[in-house]
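INFO  loader      accepted 1 record
INFO  loader      residues=240
INFO  predictor   begin
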Amino acid sequence: MSLVQKKTTRKKTTQPETGVLVAPSLLSADFARLKDEVQAVEKAGADWLHLDVMDGHFVPNLTFGPILVESLQEHTQLPLDCHLMVSRPEDWIEPFARAGADVITVHAEATFHLDRLIHRIREAGCRAGVSINPGTNLGAVEEVLDQVDLVLIMSVNPGFGGQKFIPSTLDKVKRLASIRGDRSFLIEIDGGISSANAATARAAGVDVLVAGSAIFGAADRAKAIRDIRSKANGNTRSRR
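INFO  predictor   done
INFO  writer      dumping tokens
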């Protein structure tokens, strides 16, 4: 079935009553056995599957497109969390939505028309997210916080997996959590996340932990996910 014809049932992407969401990043998976990798982390207890879409322009790497999403959504019940690290996100919202994305996140730095893109994501039937890089101020997204379902704080400079976590990004998370108020959007963090920093990230206000090598690089994926979740949930109670 073509991307244009594709129709999917959106999967539940809301925060559970208690605890943090763990979203393994496909960037760190073994691409030679992708179906098995995805099904392994689903069986291991993952909540979402995070897909880092890179175009070789906005970030210095090239990963995958809508065709991969279309293929994957046939083999998993996990919500597909598509993070568009691309220089022209407006060209890719509808193709990823038709392919089966459940969440589409665009970068504030990649567009002059963030409000318009958020509305297009919603109109395409997906939950809308906005992301900012480590060097970008929260002011870049403050005007759209009433409209988004998710704000993704990058805790590494995007482009490659396996990078070292930037601790100062947690100050940005704390500021975002403090201005969230009664808004319902989730705070997601991506980059260098593991069981070693899951607790501090959660304590800062994070709801969704994206982890790549810490999960796909582990011999026991279930234990890796369990360790991240237990460390995070052991420090704070869920705000929802």
